[in-house]
Amino acid sequence: MHMQSPPVNSLSLDFLTELCISLEKLEMDKGCRGLIITSVLSNQPKVFSAGLDILEMYGKSPEHCGEFWKVVQEMWLKFYGSNMGSSPAGGCLLSLTCDYRIMADNPRYTIGLNETQLGIVAPFWFKETMVNTVGHRNTEVALQLGLLYKPAEALKIGLVDQLVPEDQVFTVASQTMTKWLTIPGNVSVITTKSTLNLLFSFQLWCFNLV
Ligand SMILES: CCCCC/C=C\C/C=C\C=C\CC(=O)SCCNC(=O)CCNC(=O)[C@H](O)C(C)(C)COP(=O)(O)OP(=O)(O)OC[C@H]1O[C@@H](n2cnc3c(N)ncnc32)[C@H](O)[C@@H]1OP(=O)(O)O
């Protein structure tokens, strides 16, 4: 899936709605077993996603805000696999929801949950998704300081799984996907994934988020 919503793939209500509809269609397609999501913006350096569209969170009606927040949560529940450039805040969440993250090795790109730098708080389920990926201590430091990591730093703490030269991102993503798809049977993979997320799913249920 190629994201192309200039200038920076910010996650607006319209963009997220379209994304969720596309994901739902893929989920229902029995022939689809994996998804690589990437940005095809023409800007250089490339942005994966600038995160939530800031304009959606300012001066809007409570109904609009409710609708927006609901679709943010839907997006978070659905993702699979990704490759990317810059991914601040919601862009980082988008990639954290994936099973494997491949980042272009360009020090001009950054990834992280930088909410505190913006004077806002990363919701608890952003935080939990980060803890599940990089552990509690790394999350504590990252979230309190609102850190945006360069590729080498992100790899070091496990925020991304692999760095590759910029022109090879999609090729490596395709090779990685091929490897993941050699695991036989959707059921065992889905069940394993659900088991890994069991505690988190329970927490979300307690907070009435699913
Ligand atoms: C509705 C109820 C909500 C309740 C919410 C409650 C709690 C939620 C709490 C927190 C949740 C936070 C999650 C988020 O995702 S907040 C968004 C955080 N995003 C950022 O901090 C990214 C900011 N952007 C950047 O760092 C750079 O733009 C970027 C590195 C992505 C790209 O840099 P580049 O130099 O290429 O481009 P720019 O010139 O900076 O930008 C071009 C253009 O795009 C506009 N823009 C950038 N980011 C956003 C954005 N997130 N939303 C909307 N628009 C964005 C930027 O303003 C420029 O526009 P223009 O000036 O050309 O018109």
Describe this structure in a few short sentences:
The chain is mainly α and 210 residues long.
Structure description:
This protein has 210 residues and is mainly alpha-helical. It is built from nine helices and seven strands. Helix 1 links the parallel strand 1 and strand 2 (38-39). The two termini are 25 Å apart. The model has no long low-confidence stretch (mean pLDDT 88). It binds ligand LCMDX3IU. Ligand LCMDX3IU binds at residues 7-8, 10, 43, 47, 50-57, 65, 68-69, 86, 88-90, 114-115, 118, 120-123.
Topology:
Blueprint: E1 2-3, H1 13-28, E2 38-39, H2 62-78, E3 82-84, E4 87-88, H3 90-96, E5 101-104, E6 111-112, H4 124-134, H5 136-145, H6 151-157, E7 162-164, H7 169-180, H8 186-196, H9 198-206
Parallel strand pairs: 1-2, 3-5, 4-6, 5-7
Helix pairs in contact: 1-2, 4-5
The site of ligand LCMDX3IU has 27 residues, from helix 2.
Keywords, separated by commas or semicolons:
210 residues; mainly alpha; 3-stranded parallel beta sheet; 48% helix; 9% strand; binds ligand LCMDX3IU; ClpP/crotonase-like_dom_sf
Widest sheet: strand order?
3-5-7
Shape, principal axes of CA atoms: globular
Q: What is the N-to-C order of secondary-structure elements (H for helix, E for strand)?
A: EHEHEEHEEHHHEHHH
| Fraction of helical residues | 40-55%
Report the end-to-end length measured between terminal Cα atoms.
25 Å
Supply the number of helical segments: 9
Instruction: Give the class from helix and strand content and strand pairing.
Output: mainly alpha
- The gyration radius over C-alpha positions equals 16 Å
Low-confidence stretches: none
Overall number of strands: 7
Mean pLDDT: 88
Outline the biggest β-sheet.
Answer: 3 strands, parallel
Oligomer: single chain
Q: Kindly estimate the percentage of residues that lie in beta strands according to DSSP.
A: 5-15%
Pfam families: ECH_1 (PF00378)
GO molecular function, one term: isomerase activity
Protein name: Dodecenoyl-CoA isomerase
Keywords: Isomerase
